[in-house]
Amino acid sequence: MRITPRAPRATRGLVLAVAATTALGLAGCNRGSDSDTASGDGGEAQVGVVLITKDSTNPFFVAMQKGAQADAAKNNVKLTVASGKQEGDDQGQITAIEDAIARGDKGILITPMSTGVNAAIKKARDAGLYVIALDTPPDPADTVDITFATDNREAGTLIGQWAAGTMAGKPATIALLDLFNDKIVSVDYNRDQGFLEGMGIDVADPKKNGDEAKTGKYTAAGGGDYTIVCNEAGNGAEDGGRSAMERCLSRNPNINVVYTINEPTAVGANAALQAAGKTATIVSIDGGCAGVASVKSGVIGATAQQYPLKMATEGMAAIASIARGGEKPTPDEGLDFKNTGVALVTDKPVDGVESITSDEAAKICWGN
After folding, report:
1. Domains 12-16+44-150+308-329 and 152-305 share a fold
2. Which of 12-16, 73-77, 273-277 has the lowest mean pLDDT?
3. Which residues lie closer than 8 Å to 268 by C-beta, 6 or more apart?
4. At 260, is the secondary structure helix, strand, or coil?
5. Where would I find the Periplasmic binding protein domain in this sequence (predicted)?
6. CA proximity to 112, closest of 48, 176, 52
7. How is residue 115 annotated by DSSP?
8. Quick one: which of 295, 289, 299, 297 has its CA closest to 267?
9. pLDDT for 138
10. CATH match of 152-305 with 3.30.70.20
């Protein structure tokens, strides 16, 4: 994914605009199905769409599935929901893509597992399906027709800036708990590398985790010394996060900053720290209701909130419109995807980094 210069970060006004949009989407989930089916986009023919997520257990993907299912009648969409069995199940997604082609669906919404599904996506597009990636831009970005996603680089940068501001010049001994160590996924390297850039740590290859200098100076918020202890994969799961954190602590028990790919990983990391009698500043990304609660309780110092319902419903509406002769969506200026928004959530704000509180985030979060 080409990394382009970022425009100035969102102000509170933009955050509240995203919140309002999300609230409208949530309100849409409560509409009566009879009236929606009757409206059916002016009585147009029903459009077949499949939503393929990485799994059906992560609260982020569950929220995406439920939101799309609740909103499908609004656009007279016949929605099929599928997923891999777990993170890393390329074949499960490939099978779902092939099934969509066989059914004659008009489009696919997919959170692509890895480059391993690229060939199947190409096959679908060659068959005439319009393919929108959600949350995870594929590599390369033009594998799909367009991506609706959080700017994961910006999300990582926000929590990195917050971490540097919180450290306030003190030495930072850092653990990086990533998604995979055997796959290259854009959401993985963009969040990790964005975090480092936010702290003011030079990255080497912007599409590769773990090749930056292990010691040096972080320059954000006045700067200080840093040591990177580890890049460990937690597979986006709580148990994986705990195991990854245990491995990092075995190398250096004095870790005081922990970057995590998502909030289940953060909870697992915290459990490992508690078991070892240690504390650290933990930052994460997702903004689910459970993650926001972890910010409020102090388990997570800050998280970057994203909006999966908006990704799914806007993507589904786009496919329905295109199938009926509407215009195709275009990327936002300066990006190669449509940005669905991000907001830093913390109850310990730092100067120069725009944020919302956990109470504000709880009003617009997703999941349980």
Report:
1. yes
2. 12-16
3. 234, 237, 238, 239, 240, 241, 242, 243, 244, 245
4. strand
5. 49-326
6. 52
7. G
8. 299
9. 87
10. no
Between the CA atoms of 329, 332, 333 and 337, what dihedral angle is there, to the nearest 10 degrees? -100
pLDDT tens profile 284-320: 999 999 999 999 999 999 999 999 999 999 999 999 9
Higher pLDDT, 97 or 6: 97
Q: Which CATH code is given to the segment(s) 12-16+44-150+308-329?
A: 3.40.50.2300
Surface-to-core class of residue 358, CB atoms within 10 Å of its CB (0-12 exposed, 13-18 middle, 19+ buried): buried
Contact 117, 97 (CB under 8 A): yes
Domain ranges, ordered by start, for the chain? 12-16+44-150+308-329, 152-305
Burial class (CB in 10 A: 0-12, 13-18, 19+), 176: buried
Residue 344: beta bridge partners?
A: 304
**Do residues 234 and 240 make contact, with C-beta atoms less than 8 angstroms apart?**
yes
By mean pLDDT, which of 27-31, 331-335, 355-359 is the weakest? Answer: 27-31
The residue among 140 and 38 whose pLDDT is bigger is: 140
Decide: 67 and 313 in contact? Cβ < 8 Å: yes
pLDDT tens figures, 106-135: 999 999 998 999 999 999 999 999 999 998
The one-character DSSP state at 235 is T
Q: Confidence band (pLDDT; 50, 70, 90) for 254? A: very high
Distance CA 303, CA 322 (A): 35
CA 223-226-232 angle, to 5 degrees, is 135
**Surface-to-core class of residue 289, CB atoms within 10 Å of its CB (0-12 exposed, 13-18 middle, 19+ buried):** middle
179, 188 in Cβ contact below 8 A? yes
For 295-321, the DSSP string reads HHHTSSSEEEE--HHHHHHHHHHHHHH
